[in-house]
Amino acid sequence: MDVAATYLNTLEKKKNQLIFNSLADAILIETQNRLVEYANTSFCTLFKVKTSPEEMVGTDCKQSTHASSFLFKNPSKFIYRLDEIIEASLPVKDEELLLRDGRTMLRDYFPIIINNALTGHLWVYRQNVPATQIHFAQQKEKLNLFEHVLNNIDTGIAIFTPEQRYIFINKTALPSKDKRSFITGKTDIEYCTYYNLDKTLAEIQQTFFQQALTEKKEVRFEETVVNKKGKELYRQVIFYPVLSEEKEVEVVIRYVLDITLLKENEQQLQQTIHHYNSILNKLNDIVLLADDTLKVDFINDAWKQLFAAVEGDNEANIFSHISLKKYEFYKQAFAVLDGSVNKADGKIDLLQKDGSKKWFKYSIGTGLSNKKNDKGIVTILNDITKEMHLEENLLEVVKREKELNDIKSAFVNMVSHELRTPLAVISSGAELIQMMLNAGRPKEEIGVYAAQILSEVDRMTSFMNDLLMVSKIEAGKIDFNPEPTSLTASITELASKTYSPWKDGRTLTVTAKGDERLVHVDTKMTRHILQNLIDNAFKYSTNTEAPKLRVRYSKTFATISVIDNGIGIHNDDIVKLFASFSRGRNVANIAGTGMGLVVVKYFVNHHKGIVAIKSKLGSGTIFSVKIPY
Amino acid sequence: MNSKATVLVIEDEPMLLMNIAMILELHGFNVLKAPSGKEGLAIAEQNLPNLILCDVMMEGMDGFEVLKNVRSNQQLHTTPFIFLTAFADVQDKEKGMAATAQAYLTKPFVAKELVETIQKFI
């Protein structure tokens, strides 16, 4: 008592009020002479006092006791007992009071004693409700609520023990109340046995139930049932194990969702997709759908007809189909994906199955990826190979036309240049003869210019002949009559007639190696080739030993080599030696048209042969002609 | 006519070089002969001729390059320069004149015309 009194006195008034007002119990503190010192909100509520707790302070408790006594089944007993407690001033605990409405109330009393003197009275009242009774009522109420809710959910719900015995099944899962009642505590198999039903579904469910139980996690599966009207219904069944704090399965909840509509929609969607795919597959244009990572969702048959199928075509990335080197295409595809542009188009070339190239005009637009239901791209490729070929051909024709014009122009220019120089020598020579005759110069001096004129006329004639020959060759007007010929015999005959000796007195040496075989050659052309190469060898090797000619017979071809120890050919000149009018840089003082080797090459090509040159400036040159048998 | 004037002839066709030189000598010129652009330039720098008569298409240093070198040489840059070439196209002629040559003569030439042109610039 001392403790309680001391405690109360040490607390600040406001703090007391705050604490007492938050209590569910009704508190009343009286002074020794029974005036209200404090009452909390719960007190006012319990005793149906109409004034506020603050307004009660200082009022007479005896009066208010009488006013409240009607609440009790025996009011006079209530008043009498109060006086008795105050008289005794001893603590009272859990004293039961019977209320008029049948309920009971519990009362505590503490005398407030400070310094061994009674200074006041503390009363505590609370409603007396047996705990079990409340719990049961509450649980019952909750269960009813849950059952009501579960029965009105459009999903079949059942709760099982870990042994797969029904604890609960809702109305949606089993409409019959009697059957719901019957099934509680039983398994599906037992239920089916009792009603003589097919156990297949029950057995399948049992397997998945066991899986959920073992793995302690949710298991989903789909099942098909046929309703009374014979319609197929699709259901998704979920077994969801509820775990205790110790991670043991307490119960397993089964949800059965009717997904028939979903399935039907899906089937309809698949049919629609199939329908559109078959339309797309009939198109000549290539249609390619890809997701935002450029993974291919769909490629139509037009693609497959033209290009190599990539394994798992529709799984593959677009990179498997269109090379990453097509930088511009990918740049545009990503621009469409990131929304920088709505659509993009361009031209692209792709390699077909057979390795040939096809040209396409492409158009990239935004689309939905049917797999991820997210942003994707639609690419349409239109074959423009024919148009491109036409364009290419046209460009080629224009280019060729220009080249021909350039060649023609260069040719006319060259011919003009090549003719003007000897003409200048001839005309200046003629004028000089005239001048010298007028000046009475000696015949010997005049004779030099006359010889010049003859030499230049020879040069021009030779040039014109070469030109005519090239012109005939280019126009395809040269007869090509190959016949089995003994090269050794032809060469020996030519050597003895023309080069034994040549006009400078030197004689050509001819040697042959290997087993001689007849070679299919045009004798006129061969003679021209030989004469040209041998003449060159003599012309460009004056003052050294005479050129040599060697014939070598190998397994597949015969090789004629003309070897001289002359001035040689500069490396840079070798590569352009077979172009018209091309002459070595070191032959300006030696007469030549720059056409001879052009003719040689044409003739050798006619025999499907090759011409090879090996030369060292200042040391000599070897021209080799290889002709297959 | 300055009969003592020196003309440098640069021409890679030996017979033509010989003929031009003879024509000019017969007309009283002192003639220097060069068979290539490079040798011609060296002779010009050494002898400071009164006029240079030069072929265009030559191996190594061509006529345009010779002219460019002449114009950039302090001692030679005012020397009259005449092209004598087998390129007879109008465009070739324009190109030659644009390169600061005094005249552009084409092959085959008439001796009288050649001599008069040279005399005009000496």
Characterization of the model:
The complex is a heterodimer of chains A (629) and B (122). With 629 residues, chain A is α+β, with helices and mostly antiparallel strands. Helices cover 43% and strands 26% of the residues of chain A. In chain A, helix 15 (443-474) packs parallel to helix 19. The longest helix of chain A is centred in the middle third of the chain and has 55 residues, at 385-439. Chain A is elongated, with a radius of gyration of 60 Å. The relative contact order of chain A is 0.04. The model of chain A has no long low-confidence stretch (mean pLDDT 85). The model of chain B has no long low-confidence stretch (mean pLDDT 90). In chain B, helix 2 runs parallel beside helix 3 (63-71). In chain B, helix 1 (14-26) links the parallel strand 1 (6-10) and strand 2 (30-34). Chain B has 5 helices and 5 strands, in the order E-H-E-H-E-H-E-H-E-H. Chain B is an alpha/beta fold and 122 residues long. Chain A binds chain B through residues 413, 416-418, 420-421, 423-429, 431-432, 435, 439, 449, 452, 455-456, 585, 588-589, and chain B through 12-16, 19-20, 22-23, 26, 35, 57, 59-60, 86-89, 106-111.
Strand content of chain B: 15-25%
Spatial extent as radius of gyration of chain B: 13 Å
- Which strand order spans the largest sheet of chain B, edge to edge or round the barrel? 2-1-3-4-5
Q: Categorize the overall geometry of chain B.
A: globular
Unreliable stretches of chain B: none
- Report the average pLDDT across residues of chain B: 90
Which structural class fits the helix and strand makeup of chain B?
alpha/beta
| Biggest chain pair interface | A-B, 24 and 24 residues
Strand content of chain A: 25-35%
Helical region count of chain A? Answer: 19
